[in-house]
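Subject: Sanity check before I submit

Could someone independently write out the structure tokens for this chain? I want to compare against mine line by line before I put it in a report. The sequence has 186 residues.
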Amino acid sequence: MSSKKINKSSIKIIAGKHKGKILYMDILPNTRPTKSIVKESLFNTLQDSIKDKILIEVFAGYGSIGFEAFSRGAKKVIFIEKDSSSFSILLNNINLFNSPNLVAYNEDSLIFLEQFCKNNKFDILYLDPPFCLDYEVIFTLLSKLDLSNKIVIMEHISSFVMPKRLNNLSLYKSRKFGRSTLSYYF
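---
Independent answer below. Compare away.
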């Protein structure tokens, strides 16, 4: 991988076992890395809820949320990313950890997630869809999943008002960070 194309200083793990580890990234038109302030807020809200849990990062990009969760004690992280350029970088990031508990799928999240969740255990679902995506498509997909005893977190454009309920989960809180908002369902 060319060092000219990769800006290694832009994504860094901010806490936990792998604090300070630098992840690969590139400036790609379809990928919007999660800002450090958003990650800090996310993990301050989750605190110990992440320990020994299985997290699925949907629309994973380079995987910064999943790697942060892994550093903070998540048992396993599953990444789903459709874009082949982002997926290639995601695989390079997984190789930095040398762990069988980091797994990535180069699939369309809107097609792959439903079947995957029916056949695999998970505790936390983190979704960071492109801001241009019609969120109703995501809500339709989520309505087909068993979200009992799960945590669902969605990073979305701040102008969108999230529903008060997703299946049997209630909106716990939303936190705005400029154009991005994190909404939590417990």
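---
OP: Matches mine. For the report I'm noting this point. Residues 11-185 form a domain with the Rossmann fold fold (CATH 3.40.50.150).
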